[in-house]
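Example S7 (structure tokens).
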């Protein structure tokens, strides 16, 4: 088995991938395998009885949003009768931050890797505060979601319809030179995206009040670009998934209970272990005791070589997740130890424009005992409270040990 050749093929496909934001559409119309009674969620597969508070809350909220239930009791009864199905976003070419819950009528970003032809999807980002992705489902949360899906999403979709799409790889590369890392810090990324969308919206959205609302919402939300960035990373990594003999990680994801990874050369398998609780900085009135175990598909950014892997280029991130600028630099340097390549597309001025570390190799992780670093938001363990902080987390080493053993068994090493 020529592992190095397989890994080189994988990183070449990863770096040749060119994800473009092509549009916004209803999930049921574009996501493969989407069904009216299916709710997609972040992380590896999980059943209702094992779901954490934030994921349960997001499930209930999505059922209310869809009109499948009229109140919390009705939504819970639907689930308990087995009338709702749950599957990971990742198994449908999709991703979602935090709870990641995506339902049939929600508007989603449509991203196409124009090099290899595969597509990926992500829901729209609601902003900070009490939001569905953190398990909130009060009437104000649902009202915002309805506006996003009735006004904002269709407006962006119409604006993109007459274009060739927006080059997300180029957008991410530029933002990394402006102090973003692509996961928890997306201030520059969101402003660049707004700059690109604003004239398109102005040409297509005739209702001036609606146009103002859309621009205001995107301008006030420093995380707005996170979701299409995640979908871009997903499209890039799906292009390198399923390569015979490859030992590189193609997915890292968390559902609030379990942390899961997938490996390119082991398609169809999840390797899971209990998710760790992130450690970081907390908003006023909250502490480590309030934190839920790690949750969300947003670690797809680190899997692609940005996020926590590109912290050296985003020293200001430490004001949000904790630590010092030197810690951010050292985080990136450590990740070179467990990766197969340096990105040709994503570079960091602080390291003399060295490419970010990319291509997590399960062999190196196990051999060195170094697990990936991930920047993450911290959800309250109870549904409905929302985000209580941000910090750093690592996946359990056991995941990678499981994957190495499975690899050895499959390839008879």
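Recovered sequence:
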């Amino acid at each position: 088995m020529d592992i190095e050749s397989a890994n080189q093929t994988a990183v070449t496909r990863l770096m040749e991938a060119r994800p473009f934001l092509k549009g916004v559409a209803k999930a049921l119309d574009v996501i493969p395998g989407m069904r009216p009674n299916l709710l997609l969620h972040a992380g590896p597969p999980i059943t209702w009885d094992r779901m954490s508070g934030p994921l349960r809350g997001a499930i209930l909220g999505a059922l209310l949003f869809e009109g499948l239930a009229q109140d919390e009791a009705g939504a819970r009864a639907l689930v308990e009768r087995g009338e709702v199905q749950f599957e990971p976003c990742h198994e449908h070419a999709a991703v979602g931050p935090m709870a990641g819950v995506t339902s049939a009528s929600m508007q989603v970003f449509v991203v196409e890797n124009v090099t290899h032809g595969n597509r990926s999807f992500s829901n729209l980002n609601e902003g900070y505060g009490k939001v569905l992705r953190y398990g909130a489902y009060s009437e104000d949360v649902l009202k915002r979601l309805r506006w996003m899906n009735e006004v904002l999403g269709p407006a962006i979709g119409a604006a993109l319809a007459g274009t060739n799409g927006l080059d997300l790889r180029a957008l991410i590369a530029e933002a990394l030179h402006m102090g973003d890392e692509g996961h928890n810090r997306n201030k520059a990324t969101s402003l660049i995206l707004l700059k690109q969308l604003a004239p398109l919206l102005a040409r297509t959205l005739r209702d001036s009040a609606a146009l103002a609302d859309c621009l205001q919402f995107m301008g006030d939300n420093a995380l707005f670009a996170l979701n299409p960035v995640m979908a871009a990373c997903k499209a890039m990594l799906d292009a390198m998934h399923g390569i015979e003999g490859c030992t590189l990680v193609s997915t890292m994801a968390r559902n609030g209970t379990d942390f899961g990874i997938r490996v390119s050369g082991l398609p169809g398998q999840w390797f899971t272990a209990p998710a760790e609780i992130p450690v970081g900085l907390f908003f006023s009135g909250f502490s480590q005791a309030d934190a839920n175990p790690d949750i969300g598909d947003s670690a797809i950014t680190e899997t692609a070589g940005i996020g926590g892997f590109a912290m050296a280029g985003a020293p200001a991130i430490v004001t949000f997740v904790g630590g010092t600028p030197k810690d951010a630099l050292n985080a990136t340097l450590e990740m070179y130890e467990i990766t197969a390549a340096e990105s040709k597309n994503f570079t960091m001025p602080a390291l003399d424009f060295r490419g970010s570390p990319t291509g997590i190799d399960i062999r190196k992780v196990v051999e060195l005992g170094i697990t990936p670093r991930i920047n993450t938001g911290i959800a309250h363990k109870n549904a409905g409270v929302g985000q209580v902080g941000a910090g750093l987390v690592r996946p359990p080493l056991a995941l990678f040990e499981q994957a190495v053993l499975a690899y050895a068994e499959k390839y008879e090493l």
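Notes on this example. The chain has a mean pLDDT of 96.
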